[in-house]
Amino acid sequence: MPQLDLAHLARDLSRIHDAMITGGSPPEQPRALVARSWKRMLRLGLDPAGGNRRILSAEADVESRRHRSKLRLIVDELRAVLLRMPDAATFILVVTDAEGVILWRDGASAAQRQADGLGFVEGAHWSESVVGTNAIGTALAEEAPVQLFSAEHFETSQHPWYCSAVPVHDPSDGRLLGVVDISGPALTLHPAVQSLVTTAVRLAQARLSLIQQDQLSSLRNRMSTVLSGSRGPALVVDDDGWVAYQQGVRSQDRVEAPASDRTILIPGAGLCLPEKISGGWLLRPSGEIESSPVSVTLRQMAAQDVLEVDSSTDPLVIPLTPRRAQILAAITSAGSAGVTAAELSRTLYGDADHQVTVRAEVSRLRRSIGALLATQPYRWAEGVTARFGGAASSTS
Questions:
Q1: Which residues contact 69 (CB under 8 A, 6 or more apart)?
Q2: Are 162 and 147 in contact (CB under 8 A)?
């Protein structure tokens, strides 16, 4: 795209922005994504002139967030891919966590100095609710790739910039990890930037998948040797509940993410006691291996949706949010055939356009109830009998 066209576009967008913000009649409507975001900003009462208070995390908090983030495993590869582009001398690379907090920033020195003046620095909170419409915050709000140019930003102080942001999801469970963004002077925007960021994110997600498989393999090899002389059933999983090794028990590929303060129910094994080990958890049944099916019941107790789990040991009662209750109700209604992400999206949102959100919601749900749910399609696991009160839907 020639620079003259960009300058022309910047002037047109500025007129649209001024008219929309002041309640006037714009020469043409902004893009739908931009209009949705601006409406959110006006409802929040943000100042388009840029008087919004910046939030900056302390250095210790940023270091803690970096340590907890899986993006630390691939940030160097992102730098290697994106900062070697021919136009890298004009832009900066920014990586945030899922809350929009900037964890890493690198790139052109001149662009970094300009970004300093905006508060676009490591530790800054760059969500929409703090700094208005911007590619990072809007990508988080929409859970989709976003590119903004010049006056498509809500704050006028950001109009000299373009930004291209793509969300990064954990390939193991669909959880949103953060955003990768490239930002630079508006009139230096190259038409291929968005596709390059998208490609870099896909490569990063593939790398995360390989890292997880390597870690599971290492855990499997180490613990199979440790447990080879022991008697009794055992399950070895990583910190997210993915199964690395099983002995004397058959399990799904993933169970509930373990925690030291609670037992985990695994179909076919019953209640298991988590024991922390290096790189994951060792789960041992607290009673005898069970052959009877697990029974789950969706019901309301004192105006609270709950899931009752009965596996012939002490029953568990798991509180559910309204959204999680909706998901489990749809899965239960589908029976053994299960439901796809697209079907769940239509049930929850009225269309098939929210599949990424659905996958993330089901992933979070599986962290609570583990192997009771199977995937592809979403359904109750083999051996689980699910009920609405008296009517049962069984996959046994």
A1: 97, 103, 177, 178
A2: yes
For residues 277 and 230, what is the distance between their CA atoms, to the nearest angstrom?
16
Integer-rounded Cα Rg, in Å, for the chain is 25
pLDDT tens-digit map of 302-312: 678 888 887 55
Burial class for 119, CB neighbours closer than 10 Å (0-12, 13-18, 19+): buried
Instruction: Note the helical H segments in the chain.
Output: 3-22, 32-44, 59-68, 75-82, 109-118, 128-131, 135-142, 193-227, 322-334, 341-349, 355-369
**Amino acid letter, 265:** L
| pTM exceeding the 0.85 threshold for the entire prediction | no
Instruction: Output the CA–CA distances (angstroms, integers) from residue 121 to 48, 154, 197, 226, 390, in the order listed.
Output: 20, 19, 20, 47, 57
Nearest C-alpha neighbor of 386 from the set 323, 336, 320? 336
Give the 3-state secondary structure of 89-140: HHCEEEEEECCCEEEEEEECHHHHHHHHHHCCCCCEECCHHHHCCCHHHHHH
Q: In a 3-state reduction of DSSP, which class is residue 166?
A: strand
In this structure, the chain runs to a length of: 396
